[in-house]
Amino acid sequence: MTDQLTIRPATAADAALIVHFIAALAEYEKLSHEAEATEADILRDLFGSAPKVFCEIAEWEGKPVGFTLWFYTYSTFQGRHGIWLEDLFVDPSMRGKGIGKALLVNLARRCVAEGLGRFEWWVLDWNEPSIEFYKAQGGVMQDEWTKVRVDGDALLLLGSN
């Protein structure tokens, strides 16, 4: 990291900022229609009595410019925990300064320090700039896997059986 860049754990005072970053990421990914998280959701889930999801804020010269939001996973094959990176976002005007890489390095260091086995995340298949960036960081695309999701009415139906 440079003297201009710091990465710090998010605090409850950052809830509005986190929602802002989530909305900006959703817009970039053309998924604004799916972004429903509120400040109350962030306060409850990241800063409640037993948080299960975590966040770091990247600041450039003291100004928030990006974030990561992540949680622990578990691999039964490895018999070890890992980290799932749910969101990584850097303000478009600040890209190219090494902020995204620093955010990834920060979480990779956590994985190494805690003896975790994996560091994983999704990338949209049309997002070539991000795909190339992740490959340059050692990321390997897992094309043989297909994502499965059950939500909305289908989740209610499945859960009522």
What can you tell me about this protein's structure?
By secondary structure, the chain is an alpha+beta fold. The chain is 35% helix and 25% strand. The protein is built from five helices and five strands, in the order βααβββαβαα. A five-stranded mixed β-sheet has the order 1-2-3-4-5. Helix 1 packs across helix 2 (39-47). The radius of gyration is 16 Å and the shape is globular.
List keywords for this structure.
single chain, 161 residues, alpha+beta, five-stranded mixed sheet, 5 helices, 35% helix, 25% strand
Offer a concise description of the structure:
With 161 residues, the chain is α+β, with helices and mostly antiparallel strands. It has helices at residues 15-28, 39-47, 99-114, 128-136, 152-159; strands at residues 5-9, 54-60, 63-75, 80-90, 118-121. The protein has five helices and five strands; from the N terminus they run E-H-H-E-E-E-H-E-H-H.
Helices, strands, pairings?
Blueprint: E1 5-9, H1 15-28, H2 39-47, E2 54-60, E3 63-75, E4 80-90, H3 99-114, E5 118-121, H4 128-136, H5 152-159
Helix pairs in contact: 1-2
